[in-house]
Amino acid sequence: MSNNTPHTPHTPHTPGSPLPPHPVPLRLLDNARHRVLTVRELRRHGIAPAETSARCRPGGPWQMPMPGVCLLHSGRPSGEELLQAALRWTGGREGETMVTGLAALALHGFTTAPPLAALDRMDILVPRTRRLRSTGCARIVRSHHLPRPQRRDGFPVAPVARALADAVGRTPDPAAVRSLLTEAVREGHCGPAALVRELDRARLLSRRPVRAVVEVLMAEGRAPAEERLIRLVRAAGLPEPFWNVDLRLPEGPFLGGVDAYWPQEAVAVEIDSRAHGPDGGPDDGRHHYARKRAMLGRAGIILVHLTPRMLRDAAGQQAEVVRAALLGRYGGGGGPDGDWQPPVHVVVLPR
Fold it and tell me: Would the pTM count as exceeding 0.85?
């Protein structure tokens, strides 16, 4: 039908009489998204709320999967239609309402997440100030901290790490949790650091199944980074260090483990792939590095902090950082006004 076809006004519906053909312009029905409309939107198309209610009664041509939201057919709703209905019912300003949890993971392409059609409820993330209660297929998830939504199949969707945290928090099956977290990292949906950050924020790292999976994934993530560090040192022509060693003072305290150590120059490199401590507490990667740098600095050792992303995306730049430290020009290890002291003898042990 041409968009220029005039829309013939319909006659009011008389109770008890058959419903006439729906008056919604057919162009609206060409797109599946347009088959989900609110009562207010239908009214703008000339359909009175009373007629909408009549059409949504049992046995009618339409249905109302959410309060005030109509599905313009009588068949079984698809997962996408239910999700659209949940979002239409939730409303809210752009960027303040988004899909999260398992529904979001399905839209992100997770093979270990159930498809939308298999979900009884869709998690919808909203600001904590919204006064909404979970209704029908919409389960409301409130938060003080809303991420920036991404678009997946036309839907506003929480980033993978946030969607995972919301999904894991509502998934009691340890095997399902393990599958979701493993796919997230191994299939490249998100990095370990972002994942740990969101799990920590949701206070989920204290759960034994979650922590066990995270520890395995973090260990897996370190191996490629360690290989890149070795290639970086050799490609840059830097002296060969001791690899993967523990440092301690003679008959003194343990100073910690490092990924590379040059004893003559008193320089150590640590790859930090955690971003947050594995215990789920307030300790994060920055605090860990600051404490370790201070401890090694008091023993006269300069600590260079690298991350897997640095080694992957800016290897040449990081090689120069390590070179500067070996030449005594590195500014990150302290100085006369910091914790650094002249080097003392330390014991180097393999890890």
Answer: no
